[in-house]
Amino acid sequence: MANLLYLGIPVAILALIGLAISLKERRPRRITSDIDDFAKSMNALSSTRFSRPKSHTTRGTDAG
Fold first, then answer.
1. Is the pTM of this model over 0.85?
2. pLDDT band for position 32 (cuts 50, 70, 90)
3. How much is the pLDDT for 5?
4. Long-range contacts of 26-34, Cβ-Cβ distance < 8 Å, separation of 24 or more
5. SS (H, E, C) the chain
6. Separation CA 64–CA 55 (nearest Å)
7. In this predicted structure, what is the pLDDT of residue 9?
8. d(CA 55, CA 39)
């Protein structure tokens, strides 16, 4: 059981340090930022659907 303490204590300390670093480095976000990100991605998807280049060749006009 004492052997697990030698392993468990450093793991717990590293977990706390990692948590502290991640909380310190995270960017503050507005409440609506997730909604804005979703709206941006939906606009990007909808604009690619309608921006296909039109083909200049027509079928069936070479009846010679």
1. no
2. confident
3. 84
4. none
5. CHHHHHHHHHHHHHHHHHHHHHHHHCCCCCCCHHHHHHHHHHHHHHHHHHCCCCCCCCCCCCCC
6. 22
7. 92
8. 30
